[in-house]
Amino acid sequence: MRRAIYPGSFDPVTNGHLDIIGRGCKLFDEIVIAVVVNPDKRPLFSVEERREILSEVMTGIDAGDCLLSVDSFEGLLMEYAMRKDAGAVVRGIRAISDYEYELQMALMNRRLEPRIETVFMMSAEDYSYVSSRLVKEVFHLGGSIRGLVPETVERRMREKLGRG
Ligand code: PNS
């Protein structure tokens, strides 16, 4: 049983994240999508809302035989991954600029827990510029985010920001 964790802020989940999950499904029997609880950040969506959105949109992923679930965690990712009995962590890489930070994290995580591998997956070119941060900025400034996030995310963002 190959179980992987796909950790992230997912504030909000983008089509780029869903693309990575779909790709990860080709490698793993089970992927736990894990929302990090970070008390230092002021997110747009609460952890509960993000979990709810992820559970909703993951039904649209072509997962094949891969089992998908949604969870959240606080503290060290490596401790969480060990608790979950996972063998790997999946991270998406969009551009070379992501690589530096991701490499740093992967090596630190390896030092903390050598039994867990980090697997980098390349996102589709179509989403190579899509990030949760830019999606929020464009939306806040009145720009269109259609096609970059699942429809439910767009709708919930409109509701949250009173643009129902
Ligand atoms: O979607 P993000 O914000 O890029 O995800 C970052 C995440 C959640 C993978 C990273 O912040 C993380 O692993 N946080 C948990 C705390 C931890 O283990 N920190 C040490 C990382 S080397």
Model description:
By secondary structure, the chain is an alpha/beta fold. Helices cover 39% and strands 20% of the residues. The chain has six helices and five strands; from the N terminus they run E-H-E-H-E-H-E-H-E-H-H. The protein has helices at residues 15-24, 47-57, 77-83, 96-112, 132-140, 151-160; strands at 3-8, 30-36, 67-73, 88-93, 117-122. It has a five-stranded parallel beta sheet, sandwiched between helices. Strand 2, helix 2 and strand 3 (67-73) form a beta-alpha-beta unit. 30% of the residues are buried. The mean pLDDT is 96. The protein binds 4'-phosphopantetheine. 4'-phosphopantetheine (PNS) binds at residues 7-9, 36, 76-77, 105, 108-109.
Order of helices and strands: EHEHEHEHEHH
What percent strand?
A: 15-25%
How far from one another are the termini? 44 Å
- Report the biggest beta sheet as strand number plus sense, adding barrel if it closes: 5 strands, parallel
Helix/strand class? alpha/beta
The strand order across the widest sheet is 3-2-1-4-5
The distinct ligands, each listed once, are: 4'-phosphopantetheine
Helix content: 25-40%
Q: What would the principal axes of the Cα set say about the shape?
A: globular
Mean pLDDT: 96
Primary descriptors:
globular, 5 strands, 164 residues, 5-stranded parallel beta sheet, binds 4'-phosphopantetheine
Concise overview:
This protein has helices at 15-24, 47-57, 77-83, 96-112, 132-140, 151-160; strands spanning 3-8, 30-36, 67-73, 88-93, 117-122.
